[in-house]
Amino acid sequence: MSTLEIKDLHVSVATDDGAKEILKGVDLTVRAGETHAIMGPNGSGKSTLAYAVAGHPKYEITSGSVALDGEDVLEMTVDERARAGLFLAMQYPVEVPGVSTANFLRSAATAVRGEAPKLRTWVKEVKEAMSDLDIDPAFAERNVNEGFSGGEKKRHEVLQLALLKPKIAVLDETDSGLDVDALRVVSEGVNRFRASGDVGVLLITHYTRILQHITPDVVHVFAGGRIVESGGPELAHELEKSGYVRFTGAAV
Amino acid sequence: MTEVAGLAPELEGAKKGQGESPIASASERFTSYDVEAFEVPGGREENWRFTPLRRLRGLHDGTAAFDGTATIAVSEAASGVRVETVATDDPRIGQGGVPADRVAAAAWSASKDATVVTLDGAPEPVTITVTGPGEGATAAGHLQLRTAPHAAATVVVEYRGSGALADNVEVVLGDGSRLTLVVTTEWADDAVHVGAQHISVGRDATLRATAVALGGDLVRISPTVNYRGPGGDAELAGLGFADAGQHLEQRLLVDHSVPNCTSNVLYKNALQSAKGATAHTVWIGDVLIRAAAENTQTFELNRNLVLTEHARADSVPNLEIETGEIAGAGHASATGRFDDEQLFYLQSRGIPEDVARRLVVRGFFGEILSRITLPELRERLEAAIEAELAVTGA
Predict the structure, then answer these.
(1) Alpha-carbon distance B130 to B191, whole Å?
(2) How many CB atoms lie under 10 A from the CB of residue B21?
(3) Nearest CA to CA, how far is B183 from chain A (Å)?
(4) What ipTM is given for this predicted complex?
(5) Does residue B308 sit in helix, strand or coil?
(6) Quick check: B336 contacting A, CB < 8 Å?
(7) Does A143 touch chain B (CB under 8 A)?
(8) Which of B206, B211, B171, B214 is nearest to B189 (CA)?
(9) DSSP symbols for B71-103
(10) In Å, what is the CA distance from B343 to each residue of A14, A94, A125, B159, B348?
(11) Which residues on adjacent β-strands are paired with residue B128?
(12) Interface of A with B in 156-175 (CB under 8 A)
């Protein structure tokens, strides 16, 4: 049973006018078996939370703590966090020219599992995972994210989720830019991951439509750099009807 | 002569066409065996402007003493391989081509003899090791590789050691022959090497050349390809790994003057600098398709991967076409950066930083290294590249 525990997290980014505080005290605990949705308007700091937890160098943690099963995540390098069981599906996955997707996936699996997967079972595993996500096998030979459409990039992120089997997955706007069919395929991939074992999911989204496919246990409203309200799935319905106005007002 | 901007960068460096008005075409490139026929480059000439002349140890301006000797050693002569040392007035010398810059002409003038390696039939792979004259010394060298008609041979030329070397390498392919050529420059850190390669492709002959530039302080190699008859096919691939303070320069000219020939140029460079010690690569790719060269097929491509800050990659592809009757011609150049976002992405999947960097560089160079069909050599070069990566620990 894994637990990601975020306590009073404050995060700044460097700007031309000096450091700017984006996260202003985030408290959040995600346990294995739970799916949390974080919803909020653009610019509220949702993605900053995701990247700060993953360890992106652009974000400076000024105070607070992040722990995975009691281990201090903030003391870990980016790759150590991933090997400890954290995964971030990015909103804008990065193109890596010269590195084939097949080679990348195998290198990542080798790193996360601590040993190179046996070739025969690995090929089968990748093939099945790709087929589950309607990914053309020819993808394996293409360079990582290079020339991928928006939908292909998101499927590729969920493919990694399936293969790397993290303890806690943070999905940053995985639904953005997807058409109805792609949204369904990607959501099914996330649901398969949820059903695969004792795993936790933190789903960051601007829209409620993905929550029709992936039912959250808890919904948090994010505004002004912190969580301003938490509730059950019904909170998402309220947001769908009334928008974020009530919360953006409260955050100021 | 009219001034033509942006054309034919390979072209100056001689009295003729030097100075304010660049010559208009690679077809007008000045060549001579006589070093005095070339003016001493000042650094602003098109074909010298990327090269730091003060690091050339006087190879370009007549001050190099040529007081040392570069030894040329040929691996045990298999059957079908003949190794000779001949005077440079041997009638075969010069069949590959004529020097087109002052350093090549200086090397030609300073070389009293030349090593000629003739390959006949289908000999076992031959390794030729050229060892520099040692730290502080300068040397000139002359090597000629010849394939007999219909021969099929593999030759590896490895440059090693210290000192400064100016040399000419002639590659004369007999009609219908096939030569696989790998040239590696694995110099010590102090070495300076300015080399001209004069490649003459016979009728229906095939060249598969791969250049691997790793060592040295300054290494500048200028291959020129000529075709003597139709059906010639030349593929020139290369990679360079420039680390802190290194200058690696590749200047290619493929001169299509006869019909129905093919050329394909693919060079990739990676650069890794340290603060205050710039890594610099220069790739010049000139292709000239003369009026007579109908049905030519040519493509040239350069890719550069900048791994760190403080690095500089220059890339100048240039294609001149004097006939409309060609099968195809194209060129492309791109320089990309391995940046923090790519590193973050790979690391966020559990891949440690050093592995991520290796993954990127290995993927980048794979296309070139996979052309080297000698497994031991390929593995050794792969290991050498990984060792370079580890040096700066970047």
Answers:
(1) 13
(2) 12
(3) 24
(4) 0.95
(5) coil
(6) yes
(7) yes
(8) B214
(9) EEEE-S--TTEEEEEEETTSTTTTSS----SHH
(10) 20, 9, 26, 34, 8
(11) B74, B157
(12) 160, 164
> How far away is chain A from the Cα of B209, in angstroms, using its nearest Cα?
22
Give domain limits for chain A. 3-251
pLDDT at B15: 39
Residues B132, B58: contact at Cβ < 8 Å? no
Place of tokens 């041997």: B90
Q: Virtual CA dihedral for A196, A201, A205, A208, nearest 10 degrees?
A: 60
Residues of chain B above pLDDT 70, percent: 93
B308 pLDDT exceeds 90? no
Query: Which pair of tokens denotes residue A49?
Result: 């939370």
Minimum-distance CB partner of B360 among A81, A90, A99: A99
Q: Looking at chain A from residue 104 to 133, which residues have their Cβ under 8 Å from any Cβ of chain B?
A: 104, 107-108, 111-112
Mean pLDDT by 10 residues, chain A (252 residues): 96 93 97 96 93 96 97 98 98 90 96 95 96 93 92 96 97 92 95 93 93 95 95 90 78 45
- Provide the pairing of β-strand B71-74 with B126-131: antiparallel
Q: Which residues contact A183 (CB under 8 A, 6 or more apart)?
A: A175, A209, A210, A213
HSE of A101, CA atoms in CB hemisphere, 13 A: 29
**Pairwise CB contact (< 8 Å): B349 & A108:** yes
Strand (E) or helix (H) holding B339: none
User: In this complex, do B348 and A79 lie within 8 Å of one another by their Cβ atoms?
Assistant: yes
Span A3-251 CATH architecture: 3-Layer(aba) Sandwich (3.40)
Q: Do B360 and A98 touch (CB under 8 A)?
A: yes
* Cβ atoms B291, B326 nearer than 8 A: no
Q: Is B130 on the interface with A (CB under 8 A)?
A: no
Q: Which residues in chain A are closer than 8 Å to B356, comparing Cβ atoms?
A: 79
Check CB contact under 8 Å for B351 and A108: yes
| Tally of CB atoms within 10 A around B51 | 23
Domain boundaries, chain B: 66-337
CB atoms inside a 10 Å sphere around CB B242: 30
Which residues in chain A touch residue B364, judged by CB atoms under 8 angstroms apart? 97-98
**Of B175, B152, B164, which Cα lies nearest the Cα of B56?**
B164
Tell me the one-letter amino acid at B323: T
B363 at A interface, C-beta within 8 A: yes
B58-99: per-residue pLDDT in tens?
Answer: 999 999 999 999 999 999 767 999 999 999 999 999 999 999
Give the residue-averaged pLDDT of B156-181: 98
CB contact under 8 A, B341 and A94: yes
* CB neighbour list of residue B62: distance below 8 Å, 6 or more residues apart: B35, B40, B106
Q: Which two tokens stand for residue B284?
A: 């010049």
